[in-house]
Structure formats: C-alpha cells, structure tokens
Predict the structure.
Amino acid sequence: MTITATNISDYDAITKTVQHYIDGARSGKGDDMRPAFHPDATIFGYVGPDLFAGPIEKLFAWNDQNGPAKDIQSRITSIDVANSVASVRLESDNWTGHRFTDLFTLLRADGEWKIMNKVFHLHA
C-alpha cells in the first residue's frame, strides 16, 4: 500500500476556493462565488419536496434573487484530499434565515482547485 502525503498548501488553496463561495453568499452576488466553481459544475439538493438540480448557473441566479446574507456563519468541517481530487463539508447557518449543509467535490484543474459539484441539504 502506498500512502501519498497531502501538501498543506492544498488545504489552504481549497479553503480559499470555498471562501469565494461564502463571500458570494454574504454579498448576495452570484458573480462573487463564480471563481470557486468550474464552468461545468452542477448542483443538487431538495428545497422542500422539490429537487433543485442542474448547472451551477442555477445557484448563481438563486443567490442574486435571494440577496445578501450579511449574518451568515459558515465553517468548513472537513476536507479530504487525494492527489487531484478533494471533498469538502461546509456548514452554514443564517443564510437569510436558512441552515445548509453543503458537500462539495473539487478537482485540481489546470493547477487550480475548482468545485465540480455541490450537493446540499436544507435543514428544516
């Protein structure tokens, strides 16, 4: 079995990528979170009984309509890295009154970490 150590710089770069997402939530501007995502990224999750799914552009449009979440509190609770892929769990509270658990998959694409997929749970 071969174990490959992950560079600390990968964790820092992934955290910086996710911070774009958090900053966009705070500002209410989809364009502020856009740098975190690969252009072909997708989103999936339920809002009540309805599946919210499709290209990541849906998230940007929702964020623009939802407006700023000035009082959002977000914490990365885990980062798992395996060479060029990673997963991140993010807990966010008070996103304009809502609580979310986000699971992101990331890929190091052209030397930069980008979110490829967001799956979320909207807490009741």
Observations:
- The chain has one domain: 8-122.
- The first strand starts at residue 37 and ends at 47.
